[in-house]
Amino acid sequence: MDIHEYIEERLDPQIKWYDEKSISCQKSYKLIQIVEIILAATIPLLSGYCNIFLISIIVGILGIIITILESLAKLFKYHENWIQYRTTCELLKYQKYIFLTGASPYNKADETVENIFVKNIEQIISSENNQWKSTHIKINRSSDERKD
């Protein structure tokens, strides 16, 4: 197997898998969060009418649904997986592009201006991805602390 076959048969499918899983986890995480927000916002409104028996039951059911949704989000780790899969996907793409352009450390000769350009661009993109990951990890931690 030569390197181009390796890229086509191994690396590209991995990049695609991590990309698709990241998108799937992101959608699941955001959907659960949106539903939780809507249900949680409905509870105070309905609580004003708790003297009606049916409303009291609905408020209780909404609380149960929110608890179940939050438990499922934690169980399946949609937020954490979304971040990890996206990070892995971007790192794989970074390495692929550095290799394909012959930039350091994948070259044996002195780097060309083009190699340096590609490497610098990829480092900027990688830095942005790292900042994105750090931000989302901090958001998740602060969200978890508020729930405790």
Uncertain stretches of 5 or more adjacent residues: none
- Strand residue percentage: under 5%
User: Helix-strand pattern, N to C?
Assistant: HHHH
Q: Major sheet, described briefly?
A: none
State the assembly state of the protein chains.
single chain
Count of helical regions: 4
Class based on secondary structure composition and strand pairing = mainly alpha
Explain the overall architecture:
The protein is an all-alpha fold. It has one domain (3-147). It is built from four helices and no strands. It has helices at 3-47, 53-76, 78-100, 113-147. α1 runs antiparallel to α2 (53-76), α1 (3-47) packs antiparallel against α3 (78-100) and α3 runs antiparallel to α4. It is elongated.
Which descriptors would you attach to this protein?
single chain; 148 residues; mainly alpha; 4 helices; elongated
